[in-house]
Give the backbone structure.
Amino acid sequence: MSTSSDPATLAVLVRQDLGMSTGKTAAQVAHAAVGCSLKARKQAMSLFERWRSEHGRIVVLAIDGIEELDAHREEAQTHRIVHHAVSDAGRTEVAPGTVTVLGLGPAPSSVLDVLVGHLEAL
């Protein structure tokens, strides 16, 4: 349960065009969450600590493909939101270097809602 009316949230956007298995998707989401956490700890410490104290809310959302991922990455840069794109090593289901997911945040939910609130949850 969140301790604020605008909880800190980490969103992970998953490309649906790659057809990744459930296990592969879970691993990629984990990589994005860890990457964002490490960046936020350095770049936005107070927001990171708030997110942790609020039990680390994470939402996983579907996007169509790389063009949509790139657009969200640009929005994150514009709005100075911590973000981390995962490039796969290519050992299992996708080619090496394929960008599979994009993590955004942690950021206030109200900010993420404006950017990605229209996306469907996985």
About this structure: Residues 2 and 54 are 5 Å apart (CA to CA). The first strand starts at residue 8 and ends at 15.
